[in-house]
Each structure stands twice: as C-alpha cells, then as structure tokens.
Amino acid sequence: MKYGARNEIAGKVTQIKRGDVMCQVKLDIPAGSKMQSVFTVESLENLGIKEGDAVKVVVKAVNVLLVKE
Prior knowledge:
Elements: E1 7-18, E2 22-29, E3 33-40, H1 41-47, E4 54-59
Antiparallel strand pairs: 1-2, 1-4, 2-3
C-alpha cells in the first residue's frame, strides 16, 4: 500500500476499548513510550487488529502541538 505520510513507528497493540461505533486502541512503541488511536469499530474489524498484534503507526498531521505548563 502506498501513502503520503512519512512518519512510521513500529508498535504493539496492548489494549482495545470498544464502544458502539468507535474504539480506542492503545499501543506500546519503542523507548517505552505509548500511543493511542481512535477510529471506528468497522475499521477495526476490517483491519483485523487484535491485542498483541504488531502494527505500524503512520502519522500524518497538519498540526502537532506541544504544551509546557
């Protein structure tokens, strides 16, 4: 599959929380960091993603905000 995003990170699915329409997928990524993604349950099922799966995190964002408080 080709895509325009240049930021790729290897990850492992650690937890999936399903709602009626949306789901939250939590990931462990290198250096002991964590990420999460929210998308439709339909997409989750189409992709066949399950806890423990190795996945590729592809990031393409217009804005990435850093906040120091």
